[in-house]
Request: fold
Amino acid sequence: MKKITLLLFLLTFQNIIYSQIISDKVSVEFKNANLKTAIQNIEQASYFKFYFDEKWMESDSTSITKQFKEVRIADILEDIFQNTSINYFVSDNKIILTNNSIIYNELPDDYFGIPLEKDENGAPIVPIFYQQYDSLKKTNTRNPNKNIRDIILIGKESKNQKKKIYTLSGYIKGGKSRAGIANIMVKIPNTEFSTVTDKDGFYKLQVPPGISTVETETFAYDKVTKKIMVFNDGTLNFNLIDNVNQLDEVLIKTAKSKNAKAAITGVTTIDAEGIKNVPLVLGERDILKVALTLPGIKTAGEGSSGYNVRGGKEDQNLFLLDHAVLYNPSHFFGFFTALNPYTTKKVDIYKGSIPAEFGGRLSSVFDITSKTGNFNKFEGEGGIGPATSNIMISTPIVKGKSSLVAGGRASYSDWILKTLDDEDLKNSQASFYDIILKYNHKFNANNDIEATAYYSHDKFSVSSDSLYKYSNRLATLKWNHTFNEKNKGSLILTNSEYRFNIDYQSPSVNSFDFGYKINDTQAALKMSYLYSEKHKISYGISSKLYGINPGYLRPENPESTLIPIEIDKERGLESAVYVGDNFKISDKLLIDFGLRYSRFSALGKASQRVYEQNLPISDATVVETKEYKNNEVIKSYGGFEPRIAARYFLTDDFSVRASYDKTYQYIHLLSNNTTQSPTDIWKLSDLNVKPESAQQVSLGFYKNLKNNEYELSLEGYYKKSNNILDYKVGAELLLNKNIETELLQGEGKAYGVELLLKKTEGRLNGWLGYTYSRSLIKLNSQFNEEKVNDGKFFASNFDKPHDFSAVLNYRITKRYSFSSNFVYQTGRPITYPIGTYDYGNAQYTVYSDRNKFRIPDYYRLDIGLNIEGNHKIKKLAHSFWNISVYNVLGRNNPYSVFFVTDKGQIKAYKTSIFSIPIPSITYNFKF
Reply:
């Protein structure tokens, strides 16, 4: 008892002395002083002596400019250490510094069995001691060690801090670019504490005081585990390493995960940075043209602007640029994509299992994301080629908070037309340009916005008297908000417009202006909820208002014999609600559920014909014409669109996936051309045109070989469609007030097998793709005039059973590489004349069944030499040269086959686009 009394007396006496010393006042002045200099100044101005580890000051960037006159030493120390992790303890004239932690000069209150001090909730306040972990190393967050047994000290301990839960935040970055990675789970194992990163790789995680283990969980990167000692709120950043070796020169990878691990089928991500070595026409870096080398994605022919995905029509693909619809993604008759390659970050292509957040198309979604600007420095990139020039610049607006990306592209391509094997095209002219702006602003850790504006314009003349013009315009505004570490959401507003004009200047009085326009405005709310480690839930709602001007014809001369035409406008409202759950049942089994309900209403003001039932739709079967007022509902359609996908691991690197999707489409592209044309028109479902629908099942096997050096996938699919639009023979689609009389709606089916082999490392890398597929349509009716091919299934215009592609890159040295691109496809279907007959003193041509024959098969080889600039770090710009030859074999591939009657004989003619090798040199630079 005497010893205890003596101990208490000594502690009390020490506290009295401490109080006297700490109350001593000091006068000192700092001028741009760092912490170490400030400490030395205090020592010179007083009798205090500091004790600390100088390593704590090695990375110190503090700059202190202050003057203190007769100020308590405690107040001075509080001021200069306020924004640091340094704590202090004063004993006599000694000041002992500590990093993060506090030195306690009193034993805890319960040392003698007395209860601890309570906080406002009645819980005991426990000091954080880590002596029990002294067998482990301790690491400061400024210089973390990779050793899993190291302790990283988080936050600055305070005697006044009484919270039971603290906040750990930071960024998770990875890859060669060290960019932020979205959707990475951060958690404390075996607890309820977990969160996921946002689109910039930022996370906020609740953590308890004391020691914990924090780890990341992701398929695409190595798992990282760190031990932390939490004293207060603090930061901890992660740099992740890919757990697969990506392509050195050509990068195509499974979307957001490794080949064998994702749940959804038929999804691919193409990174714009990784396609610079793929030789394409005129050396243009084109992210969507690279997509055509992948299984399941085709076009009807060279120079076609449409895409056919797994047997679907051109209008069954949803192209989104930063969430807004891009109605025509092509320039220059389809030879170029309407996207600046230097402002485009990546495209996620969903052709099998489409996430529930997307709707409105049957076949695929091309989700295109533009680049986010640099928040800290000015940079740029561009390219100069034989047909186009591109430029992209990025600059911070408010450093660290906001950035702007601006990109532009223009063509000087008329000379190319002179080389084509078509007299009309040789005498033509064409040009295009596109511009894009993207602005990002971070308000705080929980709120940021991004805005995109885009415009593209094409004009061409296929004769001396007609000028064709078409343009895309879109704008998006997105607000991202983090409610807490489990709940996040985005509010998205978009507007898109596509229009075309034909300006016909005739030597006679019959000059005219013909035009068309479609516009849509959408609002969407998308939410994500991390219910647990096993359930990642997404849900949302969206609504889109369509407005279509189907066309007008306006004579430009008062004396014209042409009659002005104005087709009634169309309006419609498409809305949807969805919910999805990524459910990890076990380490082997992962299921992705999705349920979407969509509803479409055709709106007035409009006139709609009603036709007699059980009779063909024609002018002769009209019963009445109904008039609908402004915003009155003409007809509504809707339905549930379930989606489910599952993945099961057979071994660690071998998985099987299956999926089922149902989709609806309420808008249709009308075209009686073989391939998509800029003058094709969009039409909404209404009283007489039903929405299209489709169901698709997929099954795939995915295997990684030789330590992920090779990726192998084999996918099969079957798709059945209803109400697919087609047309009567000789249909007139432009400026037709009663377009439904020219339309047919029937069944479609498509099936196929897709094989993809990728080599992801080594001097030789690239991929081989092969697809066997069929795309068939049936137009059957009880009326002969609505039947095609006797009501049996026949090949669609884009049915190409065999499709093989090989994209290979061989790295000769670090600066030189050789690339090649080989494509083979079955010729597309065509209808041939098979004879003639005489009737009434006139001769008529007899045609075969629709699409019974095929044009010759298509194949092409492109080669390229790629030259990187020298690898000096300090230089004005980094350069990259691409020397390529398109169609190096000079293959005269047919674009179309047509027939002409000459002197009573039917003669066939073939049109080719590029029938000779096309060399090009492109210079790319980056600064």
